Amino acid sequence: MRLRSFFFSIFSFSHSPSSSSRFSSLSAAMSPALEKSRQGNGECNEVSKSKVTVVGSGNWGSVAAKLIASNALKLLSFHDEVRMWVFEEVLPNGEKLTDVINKTNENVKYLPGIKLGRNVVADPDLENAVKEANMLVFVTPHQFMDGICKKLDGKITGNVEAISLVKGMEVKKEGPCMISSLISKQLGINCCVLMGANIANEIAVEKFSEATVGYKGSREIAETWVQLFSTPYFMVTPVHDVEGVELCGTLKNVVAIAAGFVDGLEMGNNTKAAIMRIGLREMKALSKLLFPSVKDSTFFESCGVADVITTCLGGRNRRVAEAFAKSGGKRFYLCESN
Q1: pLDDT surpassing 80 at residue 199
Q2: Given the residues 66, 167, 252, 272, the one annotated as active site
Q3: Which terminus, N or C, of the chain has the lesser number of Cβ atoms within 10 Å?
Q4: What mean pLDDT do residues 128-134 have?
């Protein structure tokens, strides 16, 4: 009966005059741990509060900062301030991007029109941004992660936890290296992952979405990340399969490129559906080849089939491949983010 109520609430959300309050009630039912944390019992010692830094400030990084900032103000176990490392850029008007973000509370270049939260502080100094944090959120293009980890090598001390929102992997001569493994090995810290059907601009305007937190070891830290990211419009589920979750977020882009070729060549919806189904099957086969511990059930989470569907319908990789096919294979640049 509760499941039936869940689906009814989702599909009636956009048609009901009281949809906002109804959706908030739905979220409370889905995230009892989060609601319990919000209520709290007394004051939390300032020293024991967790400090969060978001390493990255692009489109998805800014959205992640927005999600975290809203919860940091409500959860007693977190400091209000959320730091966000920004790769410094000078805007056309001569102002520095970090200065504009801190002045306007908006990432005018990568997420214009969206307020991040007054407790988000942009910092162009990577070491300074992370120095007091014990929870690090990595969300940059995957090709920059090796350099970032090398800069932070030896700078991370104490009981620090990390989570990677980076969709991609390092491909080396000795084989593929997952970004979570890169972080863990170079920085000596545990690293979970968050993946899912997450088009950043839709989450930024608070359209309902899901995500999956992949973890290994203790479930407790995974639940902490779930609390930190969960909102009435962003539902997060923990899964004990960090490699499976992360590989889904990486390999689905290959399927999306194939779907884009199908669109560009006007091969039809039947062919596109087949590409998505076969692609998901091959994602699972390759994941299990690389990591035999990967679970079949992971591919039915948001990080799996849902992300494949979203990326094959509206993702950047699909759009690039479609344009490439329509242009007869000519090179071009697509600057729109996601």
Answers
A1: yes
A2: 252
A3: N
A4: 96
